[in-house]
């Protein structure tokens, strides 16, 4: 999105998913809040909240917090903990 490099054109590129509205600002992990950036652009993005990226990506909607009660984050933490518990339980079975 920023530098224009594409994985199909550059074998050395490492693509990252970037939250347009960061998790710390209650941004969800949803298609309308994600863009791909090369690793270099992602690491160099400062501040991590850059509303112009939404326009650059051609995405509709405002660049504002979308999950004010942090419900999605809480659901993901619960899901991750359950998955970790399942993996640990399977390892303990003789």
Please give the share of residues in helix: 25-40%
Terminal-residue CA separation: 49 Å
What is the makeup of the main sheet? 2 strands, antiparallel
Q: List the strand order in the largest sheet.
A: 1-2
Tertiary shape = extended
Strand content: 5-15%
Mean pLDDT: 76
Low-confidence stretches: none
The chain-level structural class is: alpha+beta
Count of individual beta strands:
2
Radius of gyration: 17 Å
Treating each run of at least 4 consecutive H or I residues as one helix, how many helices? 3
Note the run of SSEs as H and E.
EEHHH
Give a structural overview.
The protein has 94 residues and is α+β, with helices and mostly antiparallel strands. It is built from 3 helices and 2 strands. The chain has helices at 39-44, 52-56, 71-92; strands spanning 15-19, 34-38. The longest helix is centred in the last third of the chain and has 22 residues, at 71-92. The termini are far apart.
Could you provide a short overview of the structure?
35% of the residues lie in helices and 11% in strands. It is of the alpha+beta class and 94 residues long.
Structure characteristics:
11% strand, two-stranded antiparallel ribbon
Write the layout of secondary structure elements.
Elements: E1 15-19, E2 34-38, H1 39-44, H2 52-56, H3 71-92
Antiparallel strand pairs: 1-2
């Amino acid at each position: 999105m920023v530098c224009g490099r594409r994985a199909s054109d550059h074998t050395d590129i490492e693509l990252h998913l970037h939250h347009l509205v960061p998790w710390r600002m209650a941004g969800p992990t949803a298609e309308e809040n994600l863009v791909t950036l090369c690793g270099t652009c992602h690491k160099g993005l400062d501040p991590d909240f850059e509303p112009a990226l939404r326009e650059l990506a051609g995405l509709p909607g405002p660049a504002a917090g979308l999950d004010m009660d942090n419900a999605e984050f809480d659901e993901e933490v619960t899901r991750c903990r359950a998955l970790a518990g399942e993996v640990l339980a399977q390892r303990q079975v003789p």
